[in-house]
Batch of 4 targets.
Target 1
Amino acid sequence: MSLIQLLPEHVANQIAAGEVVNRPASAVKELLENAVDAGADDIHLLVRDAGKTLIQVIDNGCGMSAEDAEKCFLRHATSKIRQADDLYTLQTMGFRGEALASIAAVACVELKTKRPNDETGYIVCMEGEKRTSAQACACPDGTQISVKNIYFNTPARRQFLKSDEVEYRYIEEEFVRVAMAHPEIKWQLTRDEKQVYHLEPGSFRQRVVQLMGRAFEQRLVRVHEAAGDIDIDGFICTPEYTTKNRSKQYLFVNTRYIKHIGLSHAIETAYKQLVPEKNYPAYFLRLKVKPETIDVNIHPTKTEIRFNDEKLIYGVLLSVVKHAIGVTQLAPALDFDTENDVVVPTRKPLGFPEPPRLNLDPNYDPFAVAYKQSGKKPSYASDVRQGESLQAQLQFYKETFAPEAADAAEAALPKQGRPTQSEMAVSTNRMSKINAEPNGVVPVSAEALAAESDLNNKFLQFASAYIVTTVKSGLLFVDQQAASERIIYERYLKSTQPHEKPAGQRLLFPKTIQLSPSQSDVLKEIREKLAAWGWEIEWVGGGSFIVNAAPAQTQDEDIAALVENTVDDYISRMMTVHGRQEDNVAVALARQTAVRHGQVLSRAEMMSLINDLFASECPHLSPSGRRTYWIMPETEVKQAFKNSK
């Protein structure tokens, strides 16, 4: 008996469907691209129950004949290619002829279509790849295709679908990608009888603002360059606007949305040192290249492509984005209004200006005589370093500047505020040479550490990102951002209890924020949860909201950006982690309000952070799953010195 057998056609179709239609959003992508290829300029997408019950696409394209309407459900039936060489000159979105066959294999499909010159249309009904009816009908020009009860005949696949909210977000993302690539087309999206998007035709900039929200009007920077066979056009966002994920990165090649690690790296490299660590820039870029220089047939979803000369495109893209950023950074400094400018005299003809002469007194010390001449008691309100006591500042002045000035200051202090000798010793070692050390690392001598019996005086900050202290087993390194996320996350969860509920602090000037339709729906959904944590956010219609109150710890933040980034973070986490709404909102808020890498902390702040971390329920991991601390054993330190011989 032969071990190798030919698969039945219906099994082969279901396997193909698993590659092409792995979730309702995949069917949406294929149907929308078919509508675009049909030349439609008005496309309407309707979904019910996140596509599980209904996906319907209505377009006013060229339509099909009765014969083509029946053929289109056959595998490898396509009007796009005739021979293999056609793969390298493709100008359309779909081309392999598997989409409708794969969709029909796992759903009930109804197709109504009519060409403009035909008197009647034609309707074809499919159920699990079996044609149940086909006949003439009355319908408008174009095509209407309805996909009902997806995966009705493959319940195992249906049970792997996520919640309606998650599946809808995937559908919406596919809609946004295709709609952004074709701003000349009118698009509509209706979810459960409620219209979410109504996009009128316009420019690419207008389409980006329609989809991303009116706040992007002030963030977009034009990018345009034609270099040989490469044409780059679109917009990047100013470095001031970043996101915690890559959800606002859209790259199109010949109107096809793609994901390309190399090109994304080129764009992010252009932003290097301009955006915070682990933040990502936003961009909306379109590339036009010759079809024969790319290969789009390397992935079932066609979102990955190959370039003949990737290095050339990488270099051009990097250069163009860098130039756009440079112009943006320079523009605010340019002022062409010269009416009130100071008139600078020009030199006399054939004359040369004399070099300036500086007369310096090397023995002059302003701190040695400042207080003696004024006869006033000194005020330290503006001089005390953040987080340091008056005594520590006093010792710093005594060592660094003039003893006389410090003595005068000490005499002005109340007796109970004067430092002890042990406090002076600690402060001396911690404060001396603070400005001479890179990355905010404060040197502490071995004698000072040995003399300290309290852990509160053993904190250093390394690279403005890690807190270092000694423990019995060695050196403790704490990631200040990951630790802060853990602390804030647990604080938010505990505040759900009535006696722990934080009071919101009203803003002196309420903040108005503009969100995209997608963000607006999510914020309306989680507003109640945010209200339990001290937020007061009012929806005023469309994508507009007013923030009237916020938790006290967020008062110094950019409230509008904080809310927007929290919503984006929540959406991203919801689609990847699929946790409880309460947890996802708490994680999103913690990530946005945590202490950042690069933020210099005082000793008191470092002490508080470590104490709060180890008082938490899960101190070793951030809510995102990152490690919060690491201990270098004493034996490892000793071994490192032994190996250095």
Note: The first helix runs from residue 9 to 20.
Target 2
Amino acid sequence: MVVILAMGFGVNVRGQEAADTLHEVVVTGTGTAHRLRDVPVQTEVISRRMLDSYGAKSLEEILSGLTSSFAFNEGDMGSQMQMGGLGNSYILILIDGKRIHGDVGGENDLSLIDPHNIDHIEIVRGAQSALYGSDAMAGVINIITRRHAFLAKGGVAAENVTRYGSYNDVRQHDAVGVTMGRATSYTTFQMQHNDGWRNTSQEYTEAMVVTDSRNRTTNNFTNWQLGERFSYALTPSTELYAEGSYYTKGIHRPQDGHYPSCDVYTYDLMYRNAGASVGGRWKSRRGDAVSLDVDWNKHAYYYEYTATTLTDGYDPTGRFTNYYPYFAGQRSLQSDQQRLMGTLKGIVGLPAGNLLNAGAEFRYDYLDAPMRTATGTASDWTAALYVQDEYTPLQWLNVTAGLRLNQNENFGFRATPKLSTMVSLGDFRLRAGWSQGFKTPTTKELHYRYLHTMGSTAFFNMGNTDLKAQRSNYWSVGLEYRGQKLTASVTGYWNRLDDMIVLVNVPEGEIPPSVTSAYGGDGSNAIIARRYKNMEDARTCGIDVNLSYALTAEWSLSGNYSWLDTKAHQYNTTKDRLVSATIDGMAHHRWSAQTTWNHRFGPRYRLGASLSTRGSSRRYYENNGNGRPYQLWRLSTTHDLGPTGRPLSYRVEAGVDDIFNYVDRTMHPYHLGTKASGTTVYASFSIRFQTGKRVKQQINKPNQNNYNDED
């Protein structure tokens, strides 16, 4: 902590970027364009310059290294992410204003997001905007891609980035953009591969410690994704578009394990994702706008068997068994999530300093899981209407009020109001907000069942059709100073959740007899059952402190700190009283800091260097122990070659992560504080070509009815 204090707190600006950030435009909090310093809802930005200097290979590295708001525990099925004490299902992730789709076991596969295609990231904490529904109780992450900047000059633009690092880590990014009159095409490709690593050979199983386990901390994986977006300017104010993407990922696990151990795997994991969207935008000269989007997404994962396996699942009578035989080379579908969503929204300026944002949404979710649900499939639909008004009666005062009306197929109607205010006093901004949230159980929380055997223990996770919808009340207050060189902010928040859904241990009496007979009938296996249940109550509260200072135009210091506390209570039927429960993954303290230096040596070479650190106190879990505290250090460098302003440009990046070789060697299957593999190195080379004339872009000015498409 002494080091953090010495380096300062903050994530917002770097050197020359301090002045630029004063005029940076953000849209996530209100759906309308505001300069960052004047946005009514507290917004945190990770800029493109910060991304360039940090040199991260994944979105997990970006969020954990450049802000203290997030914690991760990466696994085979995705990333267990936490924000403000709440997990994945409470965090809404957007790409250009559109929801990311698909999760496995409550984990989002963030490798869908190519870090080289990110322009900047906007973060809004809590359910503070009426624009977003049930998935935003903890907050919103809006990832703005580089598409607009990539095509800013028109003509043809092409980019190739190749990166290689320790553990045969390969990252490939390619993009081609073409502008032909009114039509534009933007094509992207990404590929990621890592051989995986093992931090320890110790594993606890069958009440003993195995010292030669082959279970890996991170398994071997390969994925690739292809995307295309085509748009056509029907008129200067109207654009139509169509886009699609396809993604595949394979995870290869140890096949040469031995018993007793958890490392005996007889199948690999495979993912198949696809998406398609069509829509249009209309925008008037004065800033009024209307948009319509229709999106379809598919996220499926399979077991690919490498040896003969008796696998668990439901038989035609709805009985859970483990007698289904599969053989090497065969494949079984575990989950196919599909979503169809339509969104209509508009923005109009009204008299007396009012800016109105209104919209309607319809979302249909379909789950096909023949081995994981008693009926094989499940579905759910939600419709919503929202309206939000930004009222600026005085130059120094803004009041934003909104109301969202939600109707769910299974859980009925709910209205959730939002209210925030901002007072501007020179370079100071005082913001306060209150909002309600409403979140219905997902189809997986209601119906999904999953059994995972580890040695002689079977862990059985069960859905619960008796779940109730969750409700939240979120309060926040923050003070920010944003000057030419210094930026400082302190924000406190308190989030109360009623009927919060968590996965908790349940008594043996709640385990279905078919599961007991299949896995524990002969006494050879112990069964630990966990069921999704509603907490009686839960609350999270925290304080986020940010500070950054530009020492010179080339050298800056920054860092941030987050304090968090959570409490939850569950009614224990055996003890006939409320008992405390742990919200998995919570850590009281998280921090990160950075010092960055940039200098141009003549017209053909520019050097950038960044030294950063990130860390966490102990993380707490209900089962399998707590994660150890840690602090990691990272050095990254950038080398821009050739004169500026030319069609062809080159960049070399190189760096080292976990400089002091910290490794958490806690034995399997207990929780880790960090999965860092020790000291790793990386290097990348990028080349970019661009022709065409620069398009003059409108600068969004405050107190105007400007609308900036989230897309």
Note: The mean pLDDT is 84.
Target 3
Amino acid sequence: MERAGHFVLPAALDRGGAGARSARRLGEPVAAARNVPDQAQDVRGLTLIKVENLDQMRVWNELMIREHPQGAGPLVGAQMRYLIGSEHGWLGGFGFGAAALQLRDRDQWIGWDAHTRRQHLHRVVGMSRFLIRTEVRCQNLASCVQGMALRRVAGDYEAQYGYRPWLVESFVDTDHFIGTSYRAANWVAIGQTQGRGRQDREHHSAKSIKAIYVYELESDLRARLGVVAPAAPAAPAALVALDIAEGLDGEEWASNEFGGVNLGDRRLNERLGEFARTLGAMPGRAFCGAAQGDKAAIKAHYRLIEQPDDSQVSMEAILTPHRLRTVQRMKAQSTVLCIQDGTDVNYSGLVQCAGLGVIGSNQTGARSGGLHLHSTFVVSTEGLPLGVLRAECSAPAPKTKDDPRTAGALPIEDKKTFAWIKALRDCSELAAELPDTRQVCVMDREADFYELFDEQRRSRGVELLVRAKHDRATSEELNLFDAVRHSPVQSQQRINVPRQSSRVKKSKQKARIGHEQRTAQVDVRYRQVEFRPPSNQPGKMALKLWVVHVLEASAPSDAEPVEWFLLTTCSITTAAQAQECLRWYCLRWRIEDWHRVLKSGCRIETLQHKTAERLKRAIAINLVIAWRIMLMTLLGRECPDLPAEVLFSDPEIEVLQAYAKKKDRQARSAR
């Protein structure tokens, strides 16, 4: 009756979750697990304990409240809880409860109608909680204990509730996890949630989007339900390798890079490539200027940009076709460099723009509004750009004064540096699609933090090459920098030191003296070192990495000597391998050049829109335009004999030929 609008009930009292009642908690943290082996098969006394008494419930609640992102609950419906025990201590736990009432992608995958769903929904249970404790680093443990739970849960439900479940569902927050253990335990990914949650009656969709995984406890699930399996979608076309310069000509490039986009509107899908082609012909100009008075095109462009903020027209959707083409270009390479970096995009002049973050402040304390762009820019080992694999714009929010936590106390998910881990996970997920392409993630000093290397050790889909920022304690007497400096010189090499622009001092930013581009003669050392985990990561494992040390022994008097410490997961056993890593790191400046094209060439900081979401849409189009400009420039330098037809349309070639003739006549007359 309340839903029908006859009256409004008072708000329910907040009685807390199952774990919030002090009588059901230990009152102190659960003792940490000790000496857990590296491999699941070596764990002593690994067992799954069904929670059946108050003491076990207190342990389970304490674990979930303190260590699980969703806390202890409450779980809903018919419930089942398990603790993961061992001789080393408590390793984690599971919680099962009622399945989601409605779930579009799940319901379509099963193929049942509303009546059948209401009749048999209790046969689906949800794995609502799954925890492996933070300090436990044990390969294959997660998938191993999942298998133990899935083999047992149906029988336990039948014993306690009188019926056997046929299907288990679970959700994975892909912003934080990639579902590796689910796939290893034979779960099937079938779609994603819509961000609503069980109590979202007004369709606010306030929760995060999660991947949906299911596990069939009964192989004849649909026969038991009396439904027919839905027709399987057509198998996706095999990933076709693309040559770097393929499809870049002036007429077709935009259709190739934006074709097949899904913006929720057929007209917008069809026009996006035209918008990109128009802007690409006159980069840096507002669309109304680039369209040269075409009122229909101008109106259509702003119709796309000004879609509601919650529409399908998002930065990710706009970039999806280009990402696919980028992956295809990666497939044609034996090794690719996935360069990560971030840059601030300044919109301090857009005072009325909603959704901007704080990217800095001046000497008076006035804050600058803008967005932080973090991207993965892929290049070949020759330095030719293959495309933008991933781009994310965030609105940085300064730490509030009433937040007492230190930087070390913040979870990694709440830090700006988590963007590096998300991009690394994205590359790791691609590894299965690119089995013959080696990915090396190249990053500057901002990416030098323990959690990133620990993430790579767990996923192992890609290699890391990161310039060190922090001196560290090693397993030897000397710290990292001194230990490598005392190693013998293995080779010498000449490297290009790119130009650096000067920068005036700001309130929280040091002044920087500029210098011109130059070539440096450097000594190269390398060795393997073992790092201890940082003090704020108790119980974690040490890291074994290779370090390449680069030192300019005799720099010009007016220049600062080059000294780099490059940390890598790549094996370095010869001078040639060390020189190769050094050459790869020097190509990291390609992303800096791309940022310069974005800001100076495409002039993305002059965009003017009323919300940050609209700015992101315009930026997304310009990311691809800047990539093409940069690639065409480099192809012209690296491949001067490349036919003009590869990059330019016939009218563009005619204009360039006419311009060349004019310049030639002017040069002759000047003689």
Note: Residues 22-225 form a domain with the Aminopeptidase fold (CATH 3.40.630.30).
Target 4
Amino acid sequence: MNYFLRALREASKSWPLLAAALLCSAGVAALWGANIAALFPIIEVTLKGDSLQSWNERRLEESQRRIEVAHATIADLEKRLAAGIPDAGEAKKSQNQLDTFRLSVRGDQAIALSAQHLAPWIDRFLPRDPFKTVLLVVAFVVISTFVKHVLLMGSTLLVSWVAMTISRNIRLKVFDKALALDRAQFMKWGSAGFMAQVTSTSDMLASGITSVYGGAITEPLKIMTCLGFAFMVSWRLTLACLTLAPVVGFLMVWLNRRIRNVSKNILSRSRGFHHVLLEALNNVLTVQAYTMEGFERQRFRTCTGDMMKTGMWHSFYHALANPITEILGIGMVATSIAVGAWLVINQETKIFGITMTDQPMTVPGIMIFFGFLIGASDPVRKLSGVITGLNIGIVGAQGLYPLLDMPSKLAEAVHPREVPSPHQEIRLENVSFSYDGIDTVLKDVNVAIRFGERVAIVGPNGGGKSTLVNVICRFYDPTQGRVLIDGVPLTEVALHDLRGRIAMVTQQTELFNESILYNIRYGRWDAADEEIEEAARRAHAHEFISEFPEGYRTMVGPNGFRLSGGQRQRIALARAFLRNAEILVLDEATSQIDVDSERLIHAALSAYVENRTVIMITHRASTLALADAIIEVDHGIVTKRPARQQQAA
């Protein structure tokens, strides 16, 4: 619940909009009750051919006359009781009569007071002709209904705007968090996890905010308005009609817990759904090559089936909320009909010895009372949907905010230190690294790479080559030891500054589903088209790009599937060349290029690597020829030697 309250506090920053929505909701509630109350003069007065003015005058006269009679009776009863009545039963009866008349006087005094206050308003604003009064009341009901729906629409739109703004901000924060997290924490959630958070979880939170600032305000205000009018008619009878409220409240608490648990299951199933979907589609070539279509179809059917089962439970509990709340509404109306009918038929003010009204109720009076309770029962029914939305919002907040609060292990320095450009040296001092805290991937590494040095990293698969590069680029921080650039620990250098010095080409080339121009320009977004073409020529990509009908505007498809592996790597190399960084990292960057292209690219690299640090992970002898030094990584043990020693060996 605390996380959801946090979301509501964030939404409250848009307080002018929410205040306007609250005013609209208050107007809706007031008009909701006023429409019912406006029917009273039609039922009570005008249909009898009387005017409200004469009805009010008669009301005042009759109440004053009853007060005089009651005072006389009270005085007589008080004298009798003061004189003493021998018969105890008779004395008790006289005392009860005295209490009844005193109560009656208070009721008549209230009627007289209201008649006196109403008189100037009725004389000023209402006609004396009964039919004209009916027309006026009908016009009021029609106009107020129109205004009520305008206010309701305004409240809905204002709250929806705030909820969607919060949802959008949450999506932005989740996206920012995904980009800022270190690789270990990112892989813990995975693309599917972030996808679920950005889509369904954010929608759940928006639904909850809309429920609170929309229905959770409007519907209770309607209920309070109608019950307030009902209390004015008879507060005792109104309380009697609410006898089922505690039972319904208990059932709603139980139902809330069930809905919340089911919503958590839906969120969990949603993550699994996105996981299976993205995994199968991102690896569709492997699925088809190994004829695993049937297996993946079954996986998808299973996860969607699980979602469907959980969704059906959610629908069941959501549907159950309606009858539970409707029981309260029907219970109120049924109780009022039974008790009210008995009071009107028998012209009584008590039932089972309990006083319900100060004066015997009239048929029009009890009809209006019924109307107020029916008016309260409708928002009570709608409140079930509000409660469901609230629970969904709570679950959404519980899924989102722990992710947003999770700090990246790559903490930014509060006061980052500046390093000259170009740098002079990258040094690893006593660096050890473990992904899980159990198996050590790098063990007490001490190595230095001078600026302008071309270093080839070699070793067996799984030996720690990529981990070493990731630590140098600060995709991970060492478990022990430190990495320094010109004597400054990387943890004290701004990540944007460090990464801005690096251009990287990996074996698993990552391209965006955009044009070739877009993918190359990603290396330096402010580059001119001429610079992009020059980078493509250097990477020997211009030749095949020019053969496409749309040239550099050619769309590469998701992750570049419309291009061959060699073409993708040359575009990635062009992107790295365009960046013109002082550190170039090549992770098997020429593994998918044919021999002729590789020879040309090596010639380009030979010219490009001057006056910059180059770190290459490679197994190819042609790439090793570019190296000044060899770093050998063998199961965490790192040694560095001049390239000629390696070649001689």
Note: The chain is about 65% helix and 10% strand.
